[in-house]
Amino acid sequence: MKKKVVAEVYLDVDKKGYLGKGRVLLLELIDKYGSISKAAKELGMSYKAAWDMIDAINNLSPYPVVESKSGGKGGGKTVLTEYGKKLIRDYKLIENLINKISQEITENLEDVENLLKLYRRMNMKISARNQLLGKVVEIKKGMVNTEVIADFSGQRLTAVITNDAAEELNLNVGDEVYFIFKASNVLVYLPDGMKLSAINKIKGKVADVITGAVNSEVKIEASNAVITSIITNEAVKDLGLEKGKEVVALIKASDIIVGKF
After folding, report:
1. Which residues of the chain have pLDDT under 70?
2. What is residue 120's DSSP assignment?
3. What's the half-sphere exposure (Cβ side, CA atoms, 13 Å) at 199?
4. Architecture of the CATH domain 182-250
5. Ramachandran region, residue 71 (left: φ > 0; alpha: ψ -120 to 50; beta: rest)
6. With b meaning 16 or more CB within 10 Å and e meaning fewer, what string describes 167-193?
């Protein structure tokens, strides 16, 4: 009889139930139908029960997750906010990660030494600021190196790694991977600035600028990720960087490390 580790994800806020599979499904159905009553009907629950769930999520969230919109053809409807959509994506990423870890543990249940190695691997610390989770959409193998193209919430990045590294990672289209790169390897320029040949150009907006004695830490919101760059204070001044300004983050493909669970 084979043992199996089964785990479910429940998020709490201040020791209060916030998000689980049921509530995520409710949010997805509201997004699908634009209606709490239709979502509740499909789940076999009353409108009040569904509304109470939504109210609880909204009250525990820093931003509204669901909002009502009036007017338009057919009257008003209920929609997910951008924060609500991001919340679902984040939950599913966490759920997927937990499932993968559970699978790894299941495969090593009878081998204590391998379980310890797995634990050490999971607790490895990485100093690089930027760790983006995406999905492989294309792999191009050359004579020496392999190009790995991954999608990160609609924006694509390319990493160049050795063929040996690609084989060791056993990369396939559809795999979830981490693209890891240092903040000092992220260049920042303006959309209407000079044309550059680098493959990886990520459009975003400045979320924050933290000024130091010599360098500044620039945080850039791009899709659902925050990319950190370290540039000189003089460069920040020359570019006129401030919160909300549109910029482009540039990362050389050879500066990206690819990781896979």
Report:
1. 1, 71-76, 121-127, 193-195, 197
2. H
3. 14
4. Beta Barrel (2.40)
5. left
6. eebebeeebebbbbbbbebbbbbeeee
Tens digits of per-residue pLDDT, 2-56?
788 888 999 999 889 999 999 999 999 999 999 999 999 999 999 999 999 999 9
Backbone angles phi, psi at 72, to 5 degrees: 85, 175
Which pair of tokens denotes residue 241?
Answer: 């960087």
Residues 28-34: contacts with CB under 8 Å, at least 24 apart: 28/88, 30/54, 30/66, 30/78, 30/79, 30/80, 31/79, 31/80, 31/84, 31/85, 31/88, 34/77, 34/78, 34/79
Q: Are 95 and 23 in contact (CB under 8 A)?
A: no
**Which two three-digit tokens encode residue 203?**
């459009």
Tell me the pTM: 0.58
Contact 251, 200 (CB under 8 A): yes
Q: Which two tokens stand for residue 165?
A: 């590294």
CA distance 149 to 172: 11
Report CA-CA distances (Å) from 50 to 11, 44, 146, 162: 18, 10, 49, 51
The domain limits of the chain are: 1-124, 182-250
Q: Dihedral (C-alpha) 141, 143, 146, 149: value to the nearest 10 degrees?
A: -50
**Residue 6 CB neighbour total at 10 angstroms:** 7
CATH number, span 1-124? 1.10.10.10
User: How are beta strands 66-69 and 16-19 bridged, if at all?
Assistant: unpaired
